[in-house]
Design brief:
Rossmann fold, mainly beta, globular, Neuraminidase, five-stranded antiparallel β-sheet, single chain
């Protein structure tokens, strides 16, 4: 059964579930639904000599742009301009394209590939953006994601997130695994595998580490693992439950939920596990902390008022009992996650006995329900705030899904068999 994290009582270790096996190297299948009413028509011409490469480039770029729901791909119909001098702009006007992507590839010695691309404004007959990069052949997908990011930003004004990564939890046979994959689901890699549950992955702000909770020692312990070296350390292994890690924006501290002083309360610790400081003190269960982008506040879930709701408190002196209730629509609102600008947050809202993704503006407190599925959980904002990744149920299986922050575009990221859950969207790469 696919259980919501706060049903019936929102304790962190409620995730001791029975999951169906999942092939560890299976790629996610992406299905897109809906899209904006005013999509940008864009033509992407296959780059020169691209067919000789071990990995296509323009197909990845097109798939990236399509997933946003903001673009409509225009059929290139065999046209093959690769440099601006070859472009016959009236032809592309007649095809209905507003933007045109052209480029070339050159295979270099040592398995390197030189890629040059240009984004052209068809109406103005000018270049909007361009990029020249040289990468190993094994990194052609990454190069394509980077090009898609440049195109997206040039045409929308928002930063692209195609070069980011996601983390999620799966079970393979009797083993639980924490996996990291590209934002489109490719290049999935298992970071750890254990026979006991793994929950609550959280990316460090620089993307070099992931904090998570493991039950491998028969109790929930918070670990921090460096991705490049696989080195890890237990940073919260106190008496009782240790759960729900959340990084501060500067990466120096973690908020965690502990029961070692009675009840479920929020504490701050340094990233190395030192400097324990109690942050909340209530008679209820306080859990699921999430830092604001400026690090001054924490959103969290609490039942201190009788039902699970989202609250906000300042990150200041210890034992902070002053918290502001943020959600008032309905008697069940949990799992908050700040947007990148700090002006809104996403969360799980119970609506007509369904658990759906919602977004609330902090200033106006206006709430918008974005999904209409039955059991959604674990929402995570993309680093540009335009999409929300979450777990849900489809045909009896747990899958990952994403919805645009305006609710116009939805997509399912699934595999042929098994359940996946606990998603976390990673930060922008360092080159940005």
């Amino acid at each position: 059964m696919f259980l919501h994290r706060f049903k019936p009582l929102f304790c962190a270790f409620i995730f001791l579930l029975c999951w169906i096996s999942l092939p560890s190297l299976a790629q996610l299948k992406i299905e897109i639904f809906g899209g904006g009413s005013a999509r940008i028509p864009i033509a992407i011409v296959p780059f020169s000599d691209e067919s000789r490469l071990p990995q296509g480039i323009t197909s990845v770029i097109g798939a990236d742009l399509q997933r946003t729901g903001l673009f409509k791909l225009v059929d290139t119909a065999g046209a093959s301009p690769h440099v601006p001098a070859d472009v016959v702009f009236p032809d592309w006007v007649n095809r209905g394209a507003n933007a045109l992507v052209i480029g070339r590839t050159v295979a270099l010695p040592g398995g390197q590939v030189e890629i040059q691309f240009r984004l052209m404004d068809v109406a103005k007959k000018t270049q909007l953006a361009g990029l020249g990069i040289t990468v190993p052949a094994a990194q052609l997908r990454s190069a394509a994601h980077r090009i898609a990011d440049v195109i997206y930003e040039a045409l929308t004004g928002d930063v692209g997130v195609f070069s980011t990564r996601i983390a999620y939890v799966l079970k393979q046979g009797s083993k639980y695994a924490l996996q990291v994959a590209d934002a489109d689901g490719f290049n999935a890699q298992s970071i750890i595998e254990y026979s006991e549950p793994i929950i609550s992955p959280a990316w460090s702000p620089d993307g070099s580490k992931i904090a998570y909770v493991s039950f491998e020692n028969k109790k929930p312990i918070v670990y921090v693992q460096t991705l490049a070296t696989r080195e890890r350390r237990a940073v919260a292994s106190f008496k009782g439950s240790n759960s729900a890690p959340a990084w501060s924006p500067d990466g120096r501290r973690l908020a965690v939920v502990l029961t070692n002083q009675g009840g479920s309360q929020i504490f701050l610790i340094n990233a190395d596990g030192s400097g324990l400081q109690r942050l909340s003190r209530s008679s209820g269960i306080d859990t699921e902390p999430n830092f604001s982008p400026d690090g001054r506040h924490i959103l969290f879930t609490s039942d201190r008022g009788g039902s699970p709701q989202v609250y906000r408190m300042a990150v200041g002196s210890s034992e902070n009992s002053n918290a502001e209730r943020m959600t008032f629509e309905g008697n069940y609102n949990v799992s908050p996650d700040y947007s990148q600008n700090g002006k809104s947050f996403t969360f799980i809202h119970r609506n007509n006995n369904q658990f759906n993704i919602a977004v609330q503006e902090i200033g106006s407190r206006q709430v918008q329900i974005l999904t209409n599925s039955r059991l959604d959980e674990s929402p995570s904002f993309a680093p540009n705030g335009k999409m929300i990744l979450y777990a849900t149920e489809l045909n009896g299986h747990g899958i990952l899904s994403a919805v645009s922050s305006d609710g116009q575009t939805k997509q399912h990221l699934s595999v042929q068999s098994g359940d996946i859950r606990e998603p976390a969207w990673g930060p922008l790469p360092k080159w940005k």
